[in-house]
Specification:
Length: about 375
C-alpha cells in the first residue's frame, strides 16, 4: 500500500475539517471533489474572479448527496481579513489556492496580482495563526525559480524573478517561513509544474498550454509553441497535485514540515512528441486535425525556462508517488476537453476578456450545501 492509499483509508476513518481557498477554481474544485469523496468536511472560499460556479455544479454532480452535504460554500475575498478568519474557524487544514496565476496578467496589472497573491495570502496566514489551524498547504509555482539555468534539483537554486507573478510566489514562500519561525504556524509550499486536467480553461495563462493546444487542434487551427519543441517540459496531471496536497497536509514527519517541494510527474515530456500523442488521441471520433506547426518564438515576457521537475524531495519526505503519467492524465481528461473545447457551429468563438477583481469589501455570502444563490 502506498503512503497515499494509506492516508486515504485513515481519512475515511477519521474525517477532518478543511478550508480550500479558490475552491471554485480548476485545482481547488478537484481538491473539493477528492475531499468530499473521502467524507471530509470542507469549506470552499472563492470570489469567482477566476473560479466558476459551474465547477461547483460539476462537483455536486460527481459526489453523493450525503457527501455534498459536508460542503459549506463561502462567497468572499481573501483580501478581507475577517472573511479569512470566519472561513478558517474550526478547520484542521487550509489548502490555499486562491490567487491570480496569470503571468501576463501580472505584467499588465501588478497591483491586482499583489493584492490577491501577497496581501490575500498574508490574511490567510494571520487567520490560520489566530484560529490555531494545524497547517497551511499553499500553491507556489515553478515561476519561483526565475531565470536560473539549471533544472531545479534543489529548491535553493533560485534565479531572478521574471514577472510580478513570480515575485508574489517567492513572497508567499518567505512569509510562510517567517510565520513558522515567529508563530510556530506549520506550512508546506508546493511548486507546481504545468498542471492540467478537466475544468482548466484555455485562457488560464501560461500554465494552460495543454488545453490551448487541445482547443487549437479541435478547431483545426495551428498550434503555437515557444522554442523548438525539443526541450524537456514537466506536464503534471491534476490527480498528482491532489495527492501532494493531502500528503503535505497530513504528514507527521518533522523534517517534511515547513518545506517547499516540486510537484510534477516522474519524468519530463518532449513537447513535439507530446503533440504527436495528443493528435493521435484526438482522432478518436473526430475529424483529423490538420498538421500543427511549431512556431519558434522566444520565451514570452515573464515566462520561465523549460524545466523538468525533480520530485525526489517530495518522494522522500512526503511519500509522493505520481499515479498518472501525462498520457494517463490525457485519457481521463480528454472527454471533458472534447465536450468543452470542440467548436459549436451555433455559437461564435469570442476572445475572452480579463475579469476585473471585485472589491474586497463587497458583501460576502455564506451558503450551506449548495452552489446556487
Amino acid at each position: 500500500m502506498t503512503p497515499y492509499e494509506s492516508l486515504r483509508e485513515q481519512l475515511l476513518v477519521c474525517p477532518k475539517a478543511w478550508l480550500v481557498t479558490g475552491g471554485a477554481g480548476f485545482i481547488g474544485s478537484h481538491l473539493l471533489e477528492a475531499l468530499l469523496r473521502l467524507n471530509q468536511r470542507v469549506i470552499g472560499l472563492d470570489n469567482y474572479s477566476t473560479g466558476s460556479r459551474k465547477n461547483l455544479d460539476d462537483v455536486q454532480g460527481l459526489v453523493a448527496s450525503a457527501q455534498w452535504a459536508n460542503f459549506l460554500r463561502i462567497d468572499g475575498d481573501i483580501r478581507d481579513l475577517e472573511t479569512c478568519r470566519r472561513a478558517s474557524l474550526g478547520v484542521d487544514f487550509v489548502l490555499h489556492h486562491a490567487a491570480l496565476d496569470s503571468v501576463t496578467g501580472s505584467i499588465t496589472n501588478p497591483d491586482d496580482t499583489h493584492a490577491s497573491n501577497v496581501n490575500g495570502f498574508l490574511n490567510i496566514l494571520i487567520a490560520a495563526r489566530d484560529n490555531k489551524v494545524r497547517r497551511v498547504v499553499y500553491a507556489s509555482s515553478r515561476s519561483a525559480y526565475g531565470d536560473h539555468p539549471d533544472s531545479p534539483s534543489a529548491d535553493y537554486k533560485l534565479g531572478r524573478c521574471l514577472s510580478p507573478h513570480a515575485v508574489t510566489k517567492r513572497a508567499n514562500e518567505l512569509y510562510a517561513e517567517a510565520f513558522a519561525r515567529c508563530y510556530g504556524l506549520e506550512s508546506i509550499g508546493l511548486r507546481y509544474f504545468n498542471v492540467f486536467g478537466a475544468r482548466q480553461q484555455a485562457t488560464d495563462g501560461a500554465a494552460a498550454v495543454i488545453p490551448k493546444w487541445i482547443a487549437a487542434l479541435l478547431r483545426n487551427e495551428s498550434v503555437h509553441m515557444n522554442g523548438n519543441g525539443n526541450s524537456a517540459f514537466a506536464f503534471c496531471y491534476v490527480a498528482n497535485v491532489i495527492q501532494a496536497n493531502l500528503l503535505a497536509a497530513a504528514t507527521d514527519t518533522p523534517d517534511a514540515i515547513n518545506e517547499i517541494y516540486n510537484i510534477g510527474p516522474h519524468s519530463a515530456s518532449n513537447p513535439n512528441e507530446f503533440l504527436r500523442t495528443l493528435r493521435q488521441n484526438l482522432l478518436n471520433g473526430h475529424r483529423r486535425p490538420k498538421r500543427s506547426r511549431n512556431l519558434n518564438y522566444d520565451v514570452e515576457p515573464g515566462d520561465g525556462l523549460p524545466f523538468d521537475a525533480d520530485v525526489s524531495k517530495a518522494a522522500r519526505l512526503l511519500g509522493y508517488q505520481p499515479t498518472h503519467t501525462v498520457e494517463q492524465g490525457l485519457i481521463e481528461a480528454l472527454p471533458w476537453y472534447r465536450q468543452n473545447f470542440s467548436p459549436k457551429p451555433e455559437h461564435s468563438i469570442r476572445p475572452s476578456r480579463r475579469k476585473r477583481m471585485p472589491s474586497p469589501d463587497s458583501v460576502s455570502a455564506i451558503v450551506f450545501s449548495t452552489p446556487h444563490v
